UniProtKB/TrEMBL annotation:
<dbReference type="InterPro" id="IPR000719">
    <property type="entry name" value="Prot_kinase_dom"/>
</dbReference>
<comment type="similarity">
    <text>Belongs to the protein kinase superfamily. STE Ser/Thr protein kinase family. STE20 subfamily.</text>
</comment>
<dbReference type="Pfam" id="PF00786">
    <property type="entry name" value="PBD"/>
</dbReference>
<dbReference type="Pfam" id="PF00069">
    <property type="entry name" value="Pkinase"/>
</dbReference>
<keyword id="KW-0418">Kinase</keyword>
<keyword id="KW-0723">Serine/threonine-protein kinase</keyword>
<dbReference type="InterPro" id="IPR033923">
    <property type="entry name" value="PAK_BD"/>
</dbReference>
<feature type="domain" description="Protein kinase">
    <location>
        <begin position="185"/>
        <end position="444"/>
    </location>
</feature>
<dbReference type="InterPro" id="IPR036936">
    <property type="entry name" value="CRIB_dom_sf"/>
</dbReference>
<dbReference type="InterPro" id="IPR011009">
    <property type="entry name" value="Kinase-like_dom_sf"/>
</dbReference>
<keyword id="KW-0067">ATP-binding</keyword>
<dbReference type="InterPro" id="IPR001245">
    <property type="entry name" value="Ser-Thr/Tyr_kinase_cat_dom"/>
</dbReference>
<keyword id="KW-0547">Nucleotide-binding</keyword>
<protein>
    <recommendedName>
        <fullName>non-specific serine/threonine protein kinase</fullName>
        <ecNumber>2.7.11.1</ecNumber>
    </recommendedName>
</protein>
<dbReference type="GO" id="GO:0016301">
    <property type="term" value="F:kinase activity"/>
</dbReference>
<keyword id="KW-0808">Transferase</keyword>
<dbReference type="InterPro" id="IPR051931">
    <property type="entry name" value="PAK3-like"/>
</dbReference>
Length: 457
């Protein structure tokens, strides 16, 4: 007896959100969501055939304020490009379904159809990173994919989210309120500027110690939660090769709020400043290079033992003290690995120093810092990281697909140095050594004390 499939019954239409690419509008947006004001070009949904139980309820004002405060906004173009992009040899780029601006970016950055056909998934990973960081103009990105990590793969000793929240609460409880910076410091003079704020040199009134103060305007580019996490992760570090944070202060002036972070002053500046002032183009003495890298590796060994990933190891973030001591600084991109999140997928860092797995948005851990240490080593020798002169999309594509980075003038450097770099640049993170292994490498064993850096004026 033949059987036939019956037609569907009891169909229920729900809310369906549709994006019109030509007009840059979202259609079918529930009225309750429109009131939040965070969806550009939104067109209200037609509730005519939607059961009342499926219509989103009005959002409470307090919740809306909280959401608006914590949400940076929704871009007018979709972020996930994968679901509608396909490989097609007959197209100009090797893909069909790419937004026009991405097709233009591929052509401008020299990514050819032939390269797409060889490794389409890799190119899509790089393009996704390019979109999510708005052409690498933004260095911070939220977690792009859900992760479920088997309990058997979670390293022992990781703190839980609840434990890390308690650490943050403990640090923020020490923040003091002041009416004016003149209460605490005197002789303030700016010594550096950045996207997050201004760094001053000053004298602490209580004991006369010369210190650095990083002053950040709240409500600016750096979210307060991210700023507090940065302070927590750096202030909790007690190591000779990590810049100390002493105390943080809130200042309220009218409607303006600032957070002042008092930290250890490193008068000689960054290693980058050494390269630009004294490099020819980089350091010529391998023992000096090894000495700087030894300091960085010691800091990373300590950080990694606490299950933390720095994610921004580069010459700008290695500072030099009066006595030549080198210390790792700037924990703005640092992450605490947790039991619930023992690996990361967020694309975050500075493109030229990023490890391949970080660029692709796949699971990664502290081994990304080892790759960045290798790029730092190239900086110290060559004066700059590889691919710096290339367009950014082309550069990160080559980091993922190209040969491992090499010294510009390989013949003038020792085989120990080249072997050290080879280990740092293992593209498979499982084969990349730990920072502790590299500290024992023959190249690092020839390190000269960084006290020699105090001779530079």
């Amino acid at each position: 007896m033949s059987q036939s499939i019956s037609t569907p019954k009891k169909l229920v239409r729900g809310v369906h959100l549709h994006y019109n690419e030509e007009k840059g509008e979202y259609h079918g947006v529930p009225k309750a969501w429109l009131k939040l004001g965070i969806i550009p070009g939104a067109k209200e949904a037609d509730y005519g055939s939607i059961p009342p139980s499926l219509i989103p309820k009005e959002v409470q004002p307090d919740f809306a304020k909280k959401l608006l405060k914590s949400t940076p906004g929704i871009s007018s173009r979709p972020k996930n490009i994968r679901h509608k992009v396909h490989v097609d040899f007959h197209s100009d780029t090797g893909f069909v379904g790419l937004p026009p601006e991405l097709e233009a970016a591929m052509k401008h950055n020299g990514i050819t159809k032939e390269e797409v056909m060889k490794q389409p998934d890799v190119v899509l990973d790089v393009l996704t990173t390019y979109v999510d960081t708005e052409g690498f103009s933004k260095q911070i990105k939220t977690l792009p994919r859900e992760m479920t990590i088997p309990a058997s793969l979670v390293p022992p000793g990781l703190p839980s989210k609840a434990e890390f929240k308690r650490q943050i609460a403990q640090v923020t409880s020490t923040f003091a309120e002041i009416r004016s910076v003149e209460e605490i410091w005197t002789g303030l003079e700016p010594v550096g500027h950045g996207a997050a704020g201004v760094v001053y040199r000053g004298k602490r009134k209580a004991d006369g110690e010369i210190i650095a103060i990083k002053s950040v305007k709240l409500g600016g580019e750096t979210p307060f939660d991210a700023l507090v996490q940065e302070i927590t992760l750096q202030q909790a570090c007690k190591h000779e090769n990590i810049v100390k944070i002493y105390q943080s202060y809130f200042e309220q002036r009218g409607r303006s709020q600032r957070l002042h972070i008092e930290m250890e002053l490193m008068p000689k500046g960054s290693i980058y400043s050494f390269l630009t002032k004294y490099g020819t183009p980089g350091f010529t003495d391998e023992a000096v290079i090894a000495g700087i890298l030894k300091s960085v590796l010691k800091a990373l060994i300590y950080l990694h033992s606490l299950h933390r990933v720095h994610r921004d190891v580069k010459s700008d973030n290695v500072l030099v003290g009066t006595d030549g001591t080198c210390k790792l600084a700037d924990f703005g991109f640092c992450a605490q690995l947790l039991r619930e999140e023992s690996a990361r997928q967020s694309v975050l860092g500075t493109p030229s120093w990023m490890a391949p797995e970080l660029i692709r948005g796949v699971r990664y851990d502290h081994k990304v810092d080892v790759w960045s240490t290798g790029i730092l080593a190239l900086e110290l020798a060559d004066g700059e990281p590889p691919y710096l002169s290339l367009p950014p999309l082309r550069a990160v594509y080559l980091i993922v697909t190209g040969p491992t980075p090499k010294l510009k003038e390989s013949a003038k450097w020792s085989k120990e140095f080249k072997d050290f770099l080879k280990l740092c640049f293992q593209k498979d993170p499982a084969k990349r050594p730990e920072a502790l292994d590299l500290l024992r490498h023959p190249f690092i064993m020839k390190a000269k004390s960084t006290t020699c850096l105090k001779e530079f004026k």
